[in-house]
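Appendix B, example 12.
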Amino acid sequence: MPHRWPDFSRRATGAEYIDAPQHLSGEELSQVFHDLALVNRWLGGARAALSPLISFLKNSANRSHARPITVLDVGCGSGDIISSLKRWAEANQVRLCTIGLDLSRAALAIGRLSTESLWIQADIYSLPIREKSVDFVICSAFLHHFDDEAAVMLLRDFARIARNGIVISDLRRHPAAYLGIRILTTLFSSSRAVRHDGPLSVLKAFTPEELKRVVRRAGLSQIHSRK
C-alpha cells in the first residue's frame, strides 16, 4: 500500500512513543535516545542549538575572572546537547555550569553515565528553578510536543528564569524535512519508536512563522531567527 502524503498546512496531533516511555522496555528506551542523538547530529539539531550559545561564550571567555555561565537544557533527554556543549567548553577553557532537566528518569540515568552535570527530574509545567537563576535556557527539539497555548506558557516561564536569553531549536514542518526524516530513520534506525516518532514529530512541528507568533504572544520582543 503506497504511503499517503500528509497535509502540511496544519500541525498534526497524535501520541508518540516518547510521550509515554513507560510503554517501552529499558533497552528500547536506550535505543531511542541513542538514535535521537544521532539524528540531532546528522540533521544539525545540536549545531543549531549550540551555535548562538557558543557565540556568547566566546565573548564571555575574554573577560577576566568571569563567573561560570549557567545553561539549563529543558527536555534534555539523555543529554547529548549538554555533552556537546561541555566538550566545546573544555576544549576552549570556558567555565560552564550545565543543568539537564527532564521528566524521564531513564533518560537522566543515561545522561549521568555520559556527562558530568546537574540532572533534575521535574515536570515541565512546574520548573523548580528560581527567577533569573540561569544565564541561558535551551529548548531543543522539544517545543513541538506542545500546543500553542502550552508553548506560550512555557516560553514565559523560560523568560522568568533566564538572565541572558532563550535558545529554541526545533524541527520545521516542511515536506523536505518529512521526507528526510523518513529516509533517515528507515535506513539507519532499528527502533520502531524512532521510525514512528521521527516523521510524526515533523508533522507536529511549527513553521517559522507559527513559532514567531507563539514567541510574540509570550511577550518576547527581541527575536533572532535562523532558518
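The beta strands are 69-74, 96-102, 118-121, 134-140, 162-169. Residues 135 and 198 are 31 Å apart (CA to CA).
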